[in-house]
Amino acid sequence: MNPKPIHTIFDLANFYGLGIEYLDLPANNAGYLDPHDDPQYIAVNHNLPHCEQEFTIAHELCHYISDHKRPRRKYPNRWLNQKYKSRNVQFFVNFQRRIVNKILPPEREADMFAMSWLVQYGGVKNLIEFNNRHPEKVWLWMFVTVDVLVRMPYRLIKGILTKLLFAQIGS
User: What pLDDT sits at residue 110?
Assistant: First the structure.
């Protein structure tokens, strides 16, 4: 039995067992993840346009994927959450924690995931509409777009080599 293909952010939320609830939230609240220990839904402000609803769902889904059924983490990388006996290692890890918290706090990590979803799967119309509504996040769009373009040749080469390998095995 094949699982249902994932084409939209709604399919991805469904894959993780999360429902989407559209609520009448204040204008400054785009949405949130169900606050219970075992989240069942992502709440989304129904007054927002579709592009912002998709961004919000992807943002909250990143929080779910990163933290669900795990102790809440203070740092994105698991090794930064550990305590080390060596003074040298502890010094290095403390230095890394300061850098990571400045560069990639959990909210920015979730924003990057959400923008990456919009860039790769959300469609041009949604992406343009979101960027027009949030010009302060254009840097995020540019960063994710460059990242996707830089990785694309490697993905293409890997895909071609994989097909060639399977073609040789099949003959």
Answer: 84
CA distance 33 to 20: 10
The pLDDT of residue 1: 45
Q: Whole-angstrom Cα distance, residue 163 to residue 2?
A: 22
Domain count, the chain: 1
Q: Cβ–Cβ contacts within 10 Å for residue 153, how many?
A: 9
Task: List, in order, residues 6 or more apart from 31 with CB less than 8 Å away.
Answer: 25, 42, 43, 44, 45, 53, 56, 57, 59, 60
Instruction: Give whole-number Cα distances, 32 to 13, 119, 171, in Å.
Output: 13, 22, 52
pLDDT of residue 56: 94
Q: How does residue 108 score in pLDDT terms, banded at 50, 70 and 90?
A: confident
Per the structure, the complete domain to which residue 113 belongs is given by 9-170
List CB contacts of 4: < 8 A, sequence separation 6 or more.
Answer: 11, 14, 15
| Residue 2 lies inside a defined structural domain of this protein | no
